[in-house]
Amino acid sequence: MSAIICTREVLQTTIAVLRRGGERGEERVALWLSTAAPRTPAAVIEVYEPDQVAEVDYFRLPPLSMRSLMDHLRPTRRRIVAQIHTHPGQAFHSEVDAEWAIVKHVGALSLVLPRFAATTTPENFLEEVMTYEYSSDGDWQHCPSVGPAARVIVTA
Ligand SMILES: [Zn+2]
Fold it and tell me: Residue 19 C-alpha to ligand 1 middle, in angstroms?
């Protein structure tokens, strides 16, 4: 099981990034980066906002954006521990999300927020978010957001 730790500031930054898409009626994705050294729980040290093409019900990273991302990760020695994106309505991991996931390594986390994150705050984040983990069977498994099996730990 992979767990990540993030501060309320990380949540605040992430929510602000995601809402910018929502204000245009578009989904938005952000990436949570940690240090290259694998460690559990991994601390989120950067909220990365990739260049993206988005519509009301999807987002894509064009090839140039993927390259910029790699060019950012290599010299900073960071890795993606989670992707987080919004949906216009309910939060769930769709088949399209599975197909277009930016991260697809065992233990990778995919977080989804409802209503373009319009109602999400650092305080209610864990209640609103839906968390999925990429399994060794190659599918995305829903994980509880609270309790001992929660993947995301929020610190002050
Ligand atoms: Zn989605």
Answer: 15
